[in-house]
Amino acid sequence: MTVHLENPDWGMVLPQLIVLALAIVVSLLDAFLPREKHFTVITGVSLVGFGAAIVALLTQKGETGETFHGLFRLDGLSIFMNLVILIAAVLTVLISASYVEYLDSKMGTGEFYTLVTFAVLGAMLTASAGDMIMIYVGIELSSVATYILTAFAKRRGTSLEGGLKYFMLGLFASAILLYGMAWIYGSTASTGLDAINASLTATLSGEDANAGMLFGLLLVIVGLGFKLAAVPFHFWTPDAYDGAPTPVTGFMSVVPKAAAVAAMVRMMVQGLDALSDDWTIVLAVLAFVTMLFGNVVAISQRDVKRMLAYSSIAHTGYMLAGLAAVQVVDGVANERSVSSVLYYLISYAFMNIGAFAVIVWVQHRGQGTGLDDFSGLASRSPLPALAMTIFLVSLMGIPPTIGFYGKYYVIVALLDANMLWLAISIVVASAISAYFYLRVVAVMYFQEKAADDTDRTVVPSTLLNVGILVMVVGVLALGLFSGPIINLANDWTNLFSIAASAAGQ
Amino acid sequence: MADLLYLIPLLPLVAFVINILWGRSTIRGNAHWIAIPAAVGSWVLSIITFREIYTDHHAISQRLFTWIPAGDFNIVVSLYADQLTAVMLLVVTSIGMLVCIYSVGYMHGEDGYYRFYSYIPLFIFSMLMLVLADNLLTLFIFWEAVGLCSYLLIGYYFRRRSAGNAAKKAFIVNRVGDLAFGIGIMLTYWTFDSIYFHGEDGILEKAYHFADYGISEGTIMAIGILLFIGACGKSAQFPLHIWLPDAMEGPTPVSALIHAATMVTAGIYMSARSYTIFIGSENAMLFVAVIGSITAFMAASIALTQHDIKKVVAYSTVSQLGYMAFALGTGAWVAAIFHLMTHAFFKGLLFLGSGSVIHGMHGEQDMRKMGGLRKHMPITFWTFLIGSAANAGIFPLAGFWSKDEIIVGAWVSDSHYGKVAAIIGLCAAFLTALYMFRLVFLVFFGEERFDSHVHPHESGPWMAVPLVILAVASIFVGFVGFPPEDGAFHEFLHHAFEHVHGHEVSMTMTYTFGIVSTVVALSGVAVAYITYMRKAINTDELAERFSGIYNFLYNKWYVDEFFMAAVVNPMKDIANFLWKVVDVRIIDGTVNGVGTSIVAISARLRRVQTGSVANYALEIGVGMVVLLGVFLVAFGNLF
Q: Which residues of B touch A281 (CB under 8 A)?
């Protein structure tokens, strides 16, 4: 095969280029700017950079194409996922600025944002990947940055411990993922997703796949399941989430997870749709185990941050359930399935980062993250308590919050796919989750705190307040206006499905 | 204008948001400067909308967004304004605007002033959305929203126990109606496969041609009756009217806006909106007519014996709503809406007028402690007199035209019950004139019966100007329905009821009924004059002699007592049984058992998280092997 050079279409990768430039600019500013200007300048530059990337992304709406020899794809899925990731990035900047500057070992603002930006870039590249190599590189880029972020509070032992565990197990999982990809390459002689799809469609034509192919498929699911924190590959999650600085926990519960969901959709729906009979069963079982395990174990946690770690495992289960409803028939996926997962990700980004943001807020008042630190919050600071209640109610899935609509669309997708049992499991799992979410609400509203123990220090937190307000509005409004978003997801996934089926023929 | 339709409800919503967020901290006593411009803006836009519909003769609709897209069941939130909606828009925004202005004077210096000016715009928003709804579900949501606003405003003086109880009573009684309404909506969807009113596949078309769709008349009747029971709750029809008189615990401007002019007419509006369902079933129509006429007569008779000025006006409202209902039931759709409109003006006027009296009397509401107020508050007196005359149906004021039309409509209707309804209507009209002028004579004439330290005073311009505007409206607004059965109003509203084929009403009959009802009304006034001005009849002695009837009326037909004995107390007993036996023993036992076992499982499972990386890696590895093994054996063609 001769390699012929062609000019890449730079316009197509503009949002990613902006984020890359942002990472470089931030690291340079960190090196050359006087220390006292770091906070305002770097935070400002980061917000502007991510904002510019969002604008660049929105101008691409409705376009499709590929470049870098098919490594990079621009389609509905990539735009939607990149949008979710960038929104999560903006929210992360809002909630972490003052935390990084003043709390928890006083970490370096510049380094912190450089790492966040690289993690975001990795996630964006994964979402736009058209090739297994690109998926792997994107996931690794985002993972490595996240390992470091987890251990970023370098004077706190738990942070280092969490980071190290995450790193070691992460390597393990990356190896498994790569091994699985190698098996798939071995069976289809290609790393490009469309080419894999074409080869599978051609060789299978009604027959069962060979064992090597299935082996590769399962290893990929295990590898990505690790990144998603699906049971039983979730063991790193509680320790890493608990140890990481709280804004990082919020970040890593959304952005790397979004990257893994994107990778899962790309690999399964776009690359391996011919095997959907096989992998939907695996995903359904994983989803079932994950949502029940996450919710049940969350009950016995006494620390709100650790409780939310288990809750985020449970939410992985809901997303996997949405994906399990995909049922690819003749190259066309059940469109509600992918769009319900996309919508779930948006809802999850707002409510989960929101819940962590309120923990950050409490930490700004010199408190810890235990359940006791939340007692009597409603009488001391009614607004943060109200915001926390809204986020928790949304995580539980109660209308009219966005979390309800997220679950609703997943359940509708499952019913379309005749997977009633999984739909019922979601409802049961949500009922279990009410126990620990509402306990926080009860503690905030009905318990009093010992008088000498209130609000030891107060750290300024303007950006954090703005962030919490934005997320409250998002959780309430995006649910009420879920129609336009789900239609957007539908349109874009339709485009994606059409492109996929066109490529498959 | 079609593009700006959404602004009509949006303006009050914005006012609500601003006042509820910043009212307590910054805006405080200036909250009305947020609410009034919003209400005026809505009013101006409503007039523009009305003009457009009037000249173009077709409805305006605006699609806002898809709320829930789920396959066949799409809920699109869109606004729809036809002739019927246009009339309602004008009524709601006009009265809403005037009440906002009036309350600046009335609510001055009250605790929670900002709260008042938050809830009122919220109410206006909800009511506008209710009349702009193009499907039953949106209508139902805002139906509940206006109920919520009503609850909040009845309980405005929440430190007063009676206000809290009245608010709860209103809410609970409305639940009864709403239950039926909810079932009615489900049955509608089940029957017609649609919740949208208009269009080829809409409810109205399908209900009109129900036989073509294989729908039985019984189903249509069931839907009609269920919907009307819903209307009974909101529009205070017998026997669910009991909440409305108690709702007078709220501030008087609220009574004028919500419990006289707008919200309580929502039931009438909803029934008129789904008119083809009622046309389809004679029995449903009969049901509506019977309930309406009972309500009209009963409430008028109760009003005769009440001493609280607001209670009299409240029972008068119930009675007038009864007129509207039996107009619906006898097929006089346009007349019902006509009366709704005129009633909004004169009843709003009467409530604001009694508010002015109460304000001037430093909070006194008992008519036995008033008298001779004519000299002290001339503006209030003259405007109140006009409102009373309009309510009594005296020629040529607004109430005369609409009430007369209802009675004529009932008389000529196909229904056998129509003539009975017309006669009951005439009796109630006599009582209306009697209690209305009893009130006027007791409050404004005769000797001054209040304590010497009370100095009644006329209200300021904030309150007086809306009174004058409403009085002028109460005089002239009836003429839009002139000549009877064929006025500009009928010409206009006729388009909203395209499936209604009206009856030819001869001129002779119009004149006859016009004269009869004028005579009836004037004789009511005359009896009131003889009794309360001349004192030719001793009322106390009369009450003594006919103590049975008097007590029956004074105790409001014992409807409240009936509900206590027949519904509330048995319910309490059942609830106690459910609580102490079923809930505590059976349900709690089961739930706690399940809960405890899940907590126990959770405590076990968390031990899997040992903290050691080696364990984790092993567990992940085992998980992977199990997954691979099971799957490859079960599904792969390996073996």
A: 635
